[in-house]
Amino acid sequence: xxxxxxxxxxxxxxxxxxxxxxxxxxxxxxxxxxxxxxxxxxxxxxxxxxxxxxxxxxxxxxxxxxxxxxxxxxxxxxxxxxxxxxxxxxxxxxxxxxxxxxxxxxxxxxxxxxxxxxxxxxxxxxxxxxxxxxxxxxxxxxxxxxxxxxxxxxxxxxxxxxxxxxxxxxxxxxxxxxxxxxxxxxxxxxxxxxxxxxxxxxxxxxxxxxxxxxxxxxxxxx
Length: 222
What we know:
Elements: H1 19-27, H2 30-48, H3 53-60, H4 62-75, H5 80-99, H6 102-122, H7 130-138, H8 143-149, H9 153-183, H10 186-213
C-alpha cells in the first residue's frame, strides 16, 4: 500500500528461485526468528522449567522487541509496522503486568490490529480514506500526483474500496485471534497466531498489489 499510483515492485530485492530457497530466506529474517519462533521456544522452555505463563509470555515478548531494535539499527528508520509492533509490546507488557493477565498479553496484538481496522473504516467518513493518507505520506515527493488524481471519481472509488477491505480484514483477523486465545492452549496460540494473520492479510495484500496496477493513469479503476 506504499504507493497507490504505480504497480512497481522492488527490483533490487533478489527473489530465490525455488520454494525451498524462499523458505530458507524467510527463516533467516530477524523478524521471523525473533518475532515468531523465539517467543514460542522461550514459552515452551520457561513453562517446562516451572515458570508461570505470565512470566513465560513476558520473556517471550523481549524477542520481538529485539527484532524491532535490529531493524532500526539496520535501516535507521522506524516504519509504521515497527512502530505499531512496538506500541503493541509496550501496551501488552504494561497491561499484562498491571492486570496480571496472561490472556491480555496474548491478545494485545489483536487489540492493536482491531484499533487499526476501526481507524481504516472510520476514515471512510472523512474527507480522504486511510489508504490515500498512507500512500501520500509514504511518497511525499508524489503528493501533487495524489492530490491531482483525487479529483478522478474512479480513483476515489477504488481507494475507498481498498480502505474498506483492509478495515474489514483487520477486524476479522483480530476477532479470529481473540477467539482462538480463549479456545486453544497458549503455547499453541503463539505458534498459530502468525499463520492466522498471514491467512487473512496475505490474500488482501496480493489483491492490493493487483489493484495498484489498475490505478495507473488511464487504467480501468473499476
